């Protein structure tokens, strides 16, 4: 699916015109769109998971660098900033955190997507892979302040990074709940639950952390990015750093939880082994005594005593009771 929205400069002959949106983008329409752009006008092409042929057509019409066109059709890239002359490629990762989700991978609660932004002098192309936000309202609002194609890039980055903050708050609740369960007295928490949450936090962290460097490079690009846009991008960078710090903190807390849960399991196993050892020691006493009198020697006086049997049984019971009392005093039972 692809659409193109043409934004007319506020200084055009019809400054109040609503942006034209075209959804059927063939070669003829792409050429007409490019030719219709006047001074100050620009177009925004938004496409979801394009194939090589479509990106080749767009690259030909708008003069997009071939390396950018090749990257655009490849998903699962790390957040990055790449400059190609008067064009740039900026990649962002989207993150959706849904507790009790059903994403069919090792992290069912986390769904990631990707937005690649190709920025030129009078055009911007956004390539979406997976779950991505709809920034139309934010774009329209921000264009009233800075009417440039780079405003679409800023709006997308602002939308995605703001959602990072929401995800970090959701994780805060889940990590706190996990800490309560791990340290609750008598808790029988399955450590696999801690590992699963840890994997989800690490996946989110891998999507978020690299964006910090990419945003810093973008903010420092004084040639392509105007000062007004750089001011707003610095605000996005601040939010990005805050989100990355929060996610990093969650990862550290979960690493501590893994260690605590492992120590708790080891302690429980030691306690179980002590109980097993104590009962084994108690069972050895009657077994040993019965073994002695089961050897069938002729010269065993106790065998011919009238009270021999109750004496031996009573001795077994007494010794076992003494051992039970001793083990309980030492908290082995």
Automatic annotation (TrEMBL):
CDD domains linked: MtCorA-like
Compartments (UniProt record): Cell membrane
Catalytic reaction(s) noted: Mg(2+)(in) = Mg(2+)(out)
Keyword NAD: no
UniProt keyword annotations, A-Z: Cell membrane, Ion transport, Magnesium, Membrane, Transmembrane, Transmembrane helix, Transport
UniProt entry tagged with the keyword Chaperone: no
Organism this protein belongs to: Corynebacterium terpenotabidum Y-11
Listed Pfam families: CorA
Family designation: Belongs to the CorA metal ion transporter (MIT) (TC 1.A.35) family.
Name of protein: Magnesium transport protein CorA
GO molecular function annotations of the record: cobalt ion binding; cobalt ion transmembrane transporter activity; magnesium ion binding; magnesium ion transmembrane transporter activity
TM annotation in the entry: 276-295, 307-327
Domain of life: Bacteria
GO cellular component: a single term: plasma membrane
Membrane disposition: Multi-pass membrane protein
Main location: membrane
Function: Mediates influx of magnesium ions. Alternates between open and closed states. Activated by low cytoplasmic Mg(2+) levels. Inactive when cytoplasmic Mg(2+) levels are high.
């Amino acid at each position: 699916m692809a659409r193109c929205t043409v934004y007319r400069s506020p200084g055009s002959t019809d400054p109040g015109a609503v942006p034209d949106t075209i959804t059927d983008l063939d070669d003829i329409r792409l050429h007409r769109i490019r030719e219709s752009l006047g001074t100050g006008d620009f177009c925004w092409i938004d496409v979801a998971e394009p194939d090589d042929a479509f990106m080749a057509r767009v690259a030909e019409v708008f003069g997009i660098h071939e390396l950018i066109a090749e990257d655009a059709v490849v998903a699962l890239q790390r957040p990055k900033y790449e400059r190609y002359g008067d064009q740039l490629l900026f990649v962002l990762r989207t993150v959706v955190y849904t507790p009790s989700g059903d994403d069919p991978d090792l992290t069912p609660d986390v769904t990631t997507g990707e937005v690649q932004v190709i920025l030129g002098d009078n055009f911007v192309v956004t390539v979406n892979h997976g779950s991505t936000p709809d920034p139309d309202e934010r774009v329209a609002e921000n264009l009233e302040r800075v009417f440039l194609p780079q405003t679409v890039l800023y709006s997308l980055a602002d939308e995605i990074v703001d959602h990072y903050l929401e995800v970090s708050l959701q994780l805060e609740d889940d990590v706190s709940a996990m800490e309560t369960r791990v340290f609750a007295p008598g808790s029988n928490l399955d450590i696999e639950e801690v590992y699963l949450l840890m994997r989800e936090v690490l996946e989110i962290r891998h999507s978020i952390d690299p964006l910090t460097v990419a945003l810093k490079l973008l903010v420092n690009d004084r040639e392509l990015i105007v000062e007004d846009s750089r001011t707003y991008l610095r605000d996005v960078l601040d939010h990005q750093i805050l989100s990355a710090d929060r996610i990093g903190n969650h990862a550290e807390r979960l690493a501590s939880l893994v260690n605590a849960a492992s120590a708790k399991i080891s302690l429980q196993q030691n306690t179980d082994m002590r109980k097993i050892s104590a009962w084994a020691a108690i069972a050895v006493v009657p077994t040993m005594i019965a073994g002695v009198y089961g050897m069938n020697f002729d010269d065993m006086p106790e065998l011919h005593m009238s009270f021999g049997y109750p004496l031996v049984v009573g001795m077994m019971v007494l010794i076992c009771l003494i051992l039970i009392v001793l083990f309980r005093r030492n908290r082995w039972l």
